[in-house]
Fold this protein.
Amino acid sequence: MLTTVKCELKSFEDLARSFAAKELAANREENDRYPFGPFFDSVVTKAHEVGLLSATLPEECGGIGQDVGALCIILDHISAVDASLSGIIFTNALSQEIMLAAGNKDLLAGIMGKAADAKAALIACPSFANPSETGTTLTAVKVKDNYIINGAIEYVVLGGISGHALVPARIKGQEGYSFFLIDPADKGLNRSEPVFSLGLHSCPAVDLNMAGVVGTLIGQEGEGARYFDHAADRMHSAVAAMQCGIMKGSFNEALDYSQQRFQGGKEIINWSGLRMLLGQMAVQVKIAEMVLSEAAMAVENQEPQWNLYSRAASVHLSELACKLTTDGIQCLGGNGYMKDYGQEKRFRDAKHVQAFLGLAPMRKLGMIKSIVNG
C-alpha cells in the first residue's frame, strides 16, 4: 500500500520483489542450513551492489538517501521470501540510524567510502537487545584519546561477518551507557562460533569477548539510550514491515498449495473449513498492509505521536504474524512442518523477528510509559 501513497517508491518495490525472486527463492532451504552449511555471501554482495544495504543512509554518506518508507518496502518484499536477508538489512540500518542520531555522519561516510566489499560496509550490533532493559556488560575506560573496552556481550548480530561493530558500554563514573564503534579484527577480541538460533539462520550472530579492545566513542558520553530510542522509534516500523512480508509469504504459499492439492476428489481449497481459514488469513494480511502503511507515513511525516504509531505497528504485527504463520502450517497439513516448504521457517522467523529491539512485553510497557508521561 505504501506505493499507492508515494508512487516514487514503486522502483524500490520492483527492485526488492525482483531481487527476492531471483536471488533468494530457489535456495531458501539451502541458505537456512547455516551455520551447518555455507553462508550466502554472494547474495549479500549483490544486495550491497544494488543498494539494499544503504537505502536510508544519506547521500553524503554514500547511501541512497531515502526515508523509512523505502526501507519498509524493501523489507516487506524480501521477508516474503526469506527474512534472513531482511535481518541483515535491518541490523545494518539500525547501526546506521544510531550513528546518525549521534551526529556521526562523517564517520559513516568514511566507512562507506573505504568499503571494498559488502562485509566491509556492514556494521554489526546487538539488534535484539535494548541496553536500557538488559543492562550493559561491557566497560570502557578513556586512555588519552582512545577508549579501551573490556567484558563480554552476547548475540551481536553480524558480528562474525562485518567490518565494524557498534556496541554499548558503560564508562566508569557515567550514569548511562555509551555506544562505541570497534574493529572486529582487533587482537583483543574473541568471537564465538555462530549462534544457532530459532529463526533467521542466515542472519548470523556471535558472542564477543573483549580484552583491551580500542573503541571510538559515538556521540557523547552517557547518551547511548537517547540515540538508541531515537533510532528504535523509526526502526519499529521496519520490524512491522518484516512481519508483514512474512505474513504475505505464508498466505501466498498456503493459497497456492490449497489450489494444487487434491483430496477426496477435489481441490482442498473447496473444503469449507480451509476456505474459512484462508479467508481469515487474507483479512489479516490486508490489515497488516494498512497498519504498516500508516505507521511508515506517520514516521516520515513526523505526525503527532509518530513514535507510538511505529511501536504499536511493530508489537501488533508481530503478534499477528506469529498467529498467521501457525495457520499457514495448518493449511499444508503435515507438509507444513517439512523444510521442503517455507511455512515452518516463516513460523520460526516470525517468532525471532518479534524480539528485535527488545522483548515484546517490555516494548508494551514502554508504550504505556510514553503515553502516561505525555
In short: Residues 92 and 123 are 5 Å apart (CA to CA).
